[in-house]
Write a structure and sequence with these properties.
By secondary structure, this protein is α/β, with parallel strands linked by helices. Helices cover 42% and strands 14% of the residues. It has 14 helices and twelve strands. The protein has a seven-stranded mixed β-sheet with strand order 2-8-7-6-5-3-4, with helices on both faces.
Length: 391
């Protein structure tokens, strides 16, 4: 393992997080650094000072520029991207657009985000389609095994392959590219929920080869809340319908219907979208590749130390192939209420999850975190593990 240090190169001071809290939960909501927060506030202030000019002229110039910057970062063309408020909205846009028929199947894994599982159950229930969960058992050991396990759920009725790039409950990076290639050969629509991926890993939409991809900018890309994107490959755009029908529908014949129909649907504050270039600038200034590498080493360190306490295997191999800055760490088999109390006493914020009869801590490490933060978590787990369970 590379040397793990406490050095954050001054990043901690640039975030607005409350002092005294050990925040190891970036994966849930993200955290916005002050320079990006100020850019966001600048646009909000400009909007309120000149509502007509801002909504009538300014943002219509700035929004395409923001899409251009984001497209360059994601390996996509600007006219393949629209801004949405979160990945949940992006998934909803595509799911509601697919013309599912009775008996059609939507294939996924058993490790998807619960809110979007509910969305698919709602849509499939209305259309008498079937939402199929393929079990991916933990721990995973081989990308090839995971690919074959997921693909074995494909039938002649499979119409959609819907997967998370990084799973929410287990924080595994799934090997999605080979599955995209197979699905395209079979004419299966592919939709990726990349809620956690942008900012944690290098992305190239054209190389990935999916039909649709949605991801949050406000989790790991450092933007304000309410900033995300929906990617639709050019030849897959005609299928996409607007979730909200407004003035953009069939109103701009000379431009992309996808952009106009999805982006322009009534008066709203687009300042969080306009702050995306500021977030990309921030990452460039602070050498975010190096920041990501340091954060990954801290996650590896936590896995190693807590693994020694629990004596239990982790959910995946110790490799960037499976995780970057977020991973679920196997906990000792004890009453979890004791750990919740220990974490609370030490002001540590981290989600505790359960999966396939095992308890995990879902650890997120962002640029503002230090080795001292991770050591605080390790000490809390050790103190809890050493205490007898209450009778």
């Amino acid at each position: 393992m590379a040397t793990v240090t406490d050095e954050t190169n001054g990043l901690r001071e640039l975030f607005l997080l409350r002092p005294g809290t050990v925040y190891l939960n970036n994966g849930s909501y993200g955290a916005c650094p002050l320079p990006v927060f100020q850019a966001w506030q600048h646009y909000q202030f400009d909007l309120e000072c000149h509502p007509g000019a801002f909504l009538g002229q300014t943002y219509s110039k700035l929004l395409p520029q923001a899409r251009e910057r984001l497209g360059a970062y994601l390996g996509a063309d600007a006219n393949e991207l629209v801004f949405v408020v979160n990945a949940t909205m992006g998934v909803n846009v595509i799911a509601h657009s697919i013309d599912l028929q009775p008996g059609d199947e939507v294939l996924t894994t058993d490790q998807e985000y619960g809110c979007l599982d509910r969305m698919w159950e709602f849509i499939c229930g209305k259309r008498k389609a079937k939402y199929v969960h393929q079990t991916v058992s933990l721990p995973v050991t081989s990308a090839e095994d995971v690919i074959e396990t997921i693909w074995s759920g494909v039938t002649e009725r499979t119409r959609v392959l819907y997967l998370s790039h990084i799973t929410s409950p287990t924080a595994l990076t799934l090997p999605i590219k080979p599955l995209m290639e197979r699905a395209r050969e079979r004419g299966i629509v592919t939709l990726i929920d990349g809620a956690h991926a942008p900012g944690q890993m290098d992305l190239d939409m054209h190389d990935l080869g999916c039909d649709y991809y949605t991801g949050n900018c406000h989790k790991w890309m450092l933007t304000p809340k309410g900033s995300a994107f929906l990617y639709a490959r050019k030849d897959a755009q005609p299928m996409v319908e607007p979730l909200i029908v407004s003035g953009g529908w069939r109103s701009f014949e000379s431009r992309s219907g996808f952009i106009e129909e999805q982006q322009y649907n009534g008066t709203r504050d687009m300042s969080a979208f306009l702050a995306v270039p500021a977030a990309l600038d921030f990452m460039e200034r602070h050498d975010w590749m190096a920041v990501r590498a340091r954060c990954h080493e801290l996650v590896r360190y936590a896995r190693e130390q807590i693994g020694a306490i629990s004596g239990l295997p982790q959910n995946c191999p110790d490799s960037p192939e499976w995780f970057s800055q977020i991973n679920t760490i196997t906990l000792p088999r004890k009453d979890i209420k004791g750990l919740q109390a220990e974490l609370g006493a030490r002001h540590i914020e981290i989600p505790l999850t359960g999966w396939q009869d095992q308890r995990y801590a879902r650890l997120s490490v962002q640029g503002y975190n230090t080795k001292a933060d991770v050591d605080c978590l390790i000490d809390a787990v050790r103190a809890w593990a050493d205490k007898p369970d209450a009778e």
